[in-house]
Amino acid sequence: MMQLFYVTVNVCLTSNLCVTPLGLEGDVDLQFLLVGGKLMKIKSSSWKKDRMYKLHDDNATIWHESHRIFKRKQTFSIDDVDSVRKGRQSEGLQKHTEAHVEDRCFSIFFKGRRRNLDLVATSVEEARQWVNGLEKIISNMKKLNRQQTSEHWIFNCMRKADKNKDNMMTLKELKHFLRQINIEVDETYAKLLFTKCDTSNSGTLEGSEIKHFYDLLTHREEIDVIYEKHAATGGQMSAQDLLNFLLNEQREVATLEDALRLIEKYELDDSAKHMNHMTKDGFLMYLQQEEGSIFNPAHKKVFQDMSQPINHYFISSSHNTYLMEDQLKGPSSTEAYIKALMKSCRCVELDCWDGAHGEPVIYHGHTLTSKVLFKDVIKAIKEYAFKTSEYPVILSLENHCTLEQQKLMAKHMISILGSALLTSPLEDQMPTAFPSPQELKGRFIIKGKRLNKLDAVFSNTSPGVEDDCVSEEDEAAETNNSKTDTNEQKSKIKLAKQLSDLVIYCKSVHFSGFEHAKDNQAFYEMSSFKESKAVNLAETAEQFLQGFRIYPAGSRTTSSNYNPVPLWNAGCQIVALNFQTPSKEMDLNQGRFRSNGLSGYILKPEFQRYAGSEFNPMTLTKGPWIKHKAFHIMVISAQQLPKLNKDKPKSIVDPLVKVEIYGVPADTCSKETRSIENNGFNPMWNETFQFDIQVPELAMLRFLVEDYDATSQNDLIGHYCLPLTSLQNGYRHVPLLTKRGDVIPSAGLFVHLMLLDAK
Fold first, then answer.
1. Quick one: which H or E segment has residue 274?
2. pLDDT confidence tier of residue 745, bands split at 50, 70 and 90
3. One GO BP annotation here (predicted)?
4. Which of 11, 164, 346, 455 registers the highest number of CB atoms within 10 A of its CB?
């Protein structure tokens, strides 16, 4: 089992974890990090302090010196690091350091809301070694499969439990270790387990005894049952046995060659592999890889047709993208754009206002939110737009600037974005439909006001002096307006021709009703709605909400979110959410866009793409959208759920699992298991649920693992969401994410699923 393990673990000699990342034995950069050195920590222009930093010998934790009275030593886990960026790439380093130290600077960015760490090395070479070393370790950790991360986590907990570092484990240390891994056992069971492993009767566990303890601890009874049922060849699984399992239990389209490939890939026992057999260890290894995941591996790549008009796709979209926190006084930052783009967001919002010194800024107007330079935002977007997805990014402009600063906005976008900025239609004649995501790969599309129709591009006509005013877009003002929307209520601003000419396929227009839009609106013209108006139209309109952008109500000052599902059901392609806020709604958004290679574009079902469709999500009638499915799911077990209260060693979770379906109202449903008391390490439920699904193409499956509390609201342990059409049948492992959407490395659910045609 240790053959593919991420680290070299000498369990026969020590209970300590001697770790060297795979492939980095003797690596110069790794050795440099283990020795460590002085780095200048930058907090402000006046706070620049030299601090000692080094990699802990577990190769997974950074220790750094602290001069705080009550915190002399501080550490952070490399698991918590999102990225390492060389140079002055953070706002702090750009603001508080000089350009000549560029090559000595680097920043460590963390997952979640933790502030990034800005550092300056003593030399260019040391900066290079820090960045290279950290990136190598992070890259190695990302390559770990589920079994490897599990072992890595367990052995690290063993290290911490060995309080006196004598490479042995006493009964007291064993009980401490069990609490660390989130399992509470009574005194009798702990003694029984300890005595069973203490074959030398020494009163401590060491060497092979610790290995025996580990094997007992990680033994999975449910895997035994499944394996023994299907291992019909001398107690092992032959290639034919494995094929039968793939066909009958996993419901896969598979051949004998596929079974042999899995044996070759995952079987660890050479003698079994030589006979084309799979042992129980190999079987567990297979189940913990992507082939055994609930998420269809084929959907990790772009698999949908990307050659259809762009309005045929749901587009991952962000509201007030610049905000890191709330809508009233929180910080604005280029980092917010980077985080959204790295999550495959393809439509970002820029609220543009006149700034000091003639430079336009972005912030939430008429509030105390901080300001960020427009040109810095464009630079960040240029740098990070296509790192996760190569498909087009829409820049949704809310323009409040005067003419001179509008001209500067246009100049910045043209100079910074270069040829990637779409400045004219792709065709050499007036288009009649949107281009496709495939045709727009790597391009930036500006959404905003335009002074004239798009055909002016081909007729070389310019707007007259009287035509240079457009209605000002102001989401907050529109949302807080108690009167009905009319053109007269909207204030007018002058629009610079240079900025107007950059708006090609996404011209913002006021919505005056479906009939007016049908008779007067060009295909490239689109309207924005606040959520309440959109939900009302979604529930009452007789047609799809094609060509609309939806945004949260201005009353959501805490940056909370609305439910995007009813709007997707109604065909809305741009449903903008507050990406900075962890919430069920963001879980659903990330679940919706998890498939199709994290492209940020999901092809709508065919019945939502064309005018005249009679599909109505509120009152289902017969049609091609009805594909009645019976969905059976058994929640079997969970593994290594995280402790929620790490400050209280004896605090153990009482987990339960909620299984939720989101889709059309007829399909939306939630069911939950009982709670398991005091066991977050290996709780077992074996509870079965059934759901009736009418419109599977719009349905999503969400797992929610919570710590049950009889007296207050349950606490979130982890969650996972995916489109129902992206799941795999059979026995599957489900990864779990933190509230901010980061993978919990060692945790997961084990389930059995069957999505079948209903009889």
1. helix 270-274
2. confident
3. intracellular signal transduction
4. 346
